[in-house]
Fold each of these.
Amino acid sequence: MPVKIRILCSLLCVLALSGCVDRAQADAKLARACEAGVNALFPEGQEITKIVNKTFQKSPVGPGFRHITLDTIKNDDWLEEEIKVECIFEESFGFLNANYVASIYQVRTGDQTYGQSGKTIMGDAQDFIKLTDAVREALYE
């Protein structure tokens, strides 16, 4: 086998083995991003202090979406409260899972919904900007 073909095969093998993102790694990123997005939406002084349970599943929105449910403890310096947070992300894996891209689609906390529903933005535009900025930072840091 010619040297050029061996080098090319070796480089492809290294790329395939070193750059792969599996489902567990992607889910861990999504959970961090969901938590960061929700914390960005809370008023000053409130934050998620503990995640009790995480659930990951395909989203009913359609293919290419991932539904994350976090059972959390929220603290506001006076009271700890259990809240359920649901995040839906749009995601895609690159060729041979060499890269991974995700973006927030929707966040639900209690009776509040932020993000998108179809082509409509749910909630305040400023909240949507805070949400997407926090999620992007958590996903790609």
Amino acid sequence: MIIYSITMFVGAALFLALGTAIYRGNTKLIHDYHQRNIKESERTEYGRAFAKGMFAICATLLLSGIIALFGKDDQIATVSLIVLFAGLIISGVVIIKVQKKYNGGLF
């Protein structure tokens, strides 16, 4: 479970770095086709809202990695994976809502 935890921590660090950059206004890190219908005046708001979904992914990976450190039992692994998938689903919903609000749809 150590390797799993390290992988989750590295992934969390990457999502934290990307989310921070997007939150600070670097929306070029998001694909152009996800931003086609966003008004220029709303780009900063869009970046901050999108970054919240990225931060949620970061927290999910971090929490799943921390839970995995508690042992090698099947129950702990199951809880860690449940937290991972639940958090990714919630984060995905947040990002989809942001896309629909600012872009009018996913693409």
Amino acid sequence: MVKTLKKRSWWLVWLVSALIMLSPSILVAEDNCFYLGVTGQITPFLSGDVGTGIDAPSYKDAFGTGWGVGLEGGYRFTEYFSAQVGVGYERFSGSTAQGICFDSLNVIPIYAGGKYHVLTTNCTWDPYLRFDLGAAHFGPVDTSFMGSRGNYWDPSWAFLADAGAGIEYHMAPFGIFAEVKARYLGSPSSAMSPLSDADSSWTLPVNLGLRYYF
């Protein structure tokens, strides 16, 4: 009797040990799985001018690298494809360019899109490609020049599109991820036309975040 109990105990120990060792590859997001994620972000501007004329300052001159936070929900409906919607808040500190002092810029992106997962759902590491379409709300921006202050951009909505790649590490029920995207933003609304008629812009959001699967 004692030998039988000892034998069963050893089998139980081996079973628990095996589950612990295999858990990173087993306890991952399954098919038909929802998630909710939070994101921290840094976003440098890459291109575009904030006004008209040959010497108009660029977005990179007028604003510093932005920081932001985001909330995203998604649903993985097949092994290789998932869909997501999200909203964020981003702030770009203002700078002085060519004697013009720009206030900070606030941007609120709202989007929907999809992901293509390179590997199946039973993998610990989850590399993926993603794309999104949506709109971005530009907050108002004031400027100061030679003691005179004025409204440079009015609050407005602009088109948003992005594409990028990321990788996620699953540790059920959580996933830790990092991703980078190339993002296009339409032009904000000018309040001092034609001087403040801005170009559209490209940014490079770099995200690090946490997802919870349920």
Amino acid sequence: MLYTYIKFENQTMGEKARRLLSSKGINSSLRRNPNPDRKEGCNFALYVHGDVYNAFDILTKNNIRNLGVESFRDIL
């Protein structure tokens, strides 16, 4: 299965993003990144239940710092 999510360097920024999206009526959940890049910090992944690119645009317009959108495929 393919998962697409927005990456954050720490849990604090991920929670801030989750709360903002929630206030806009967009459900999401914050978890550890399944494919972390240790050079970028702790790596948390925000899974958006809906259009992840729309959520990314909202976060960008509201100056919520993130590490971009990434996809990860489960190993079969």
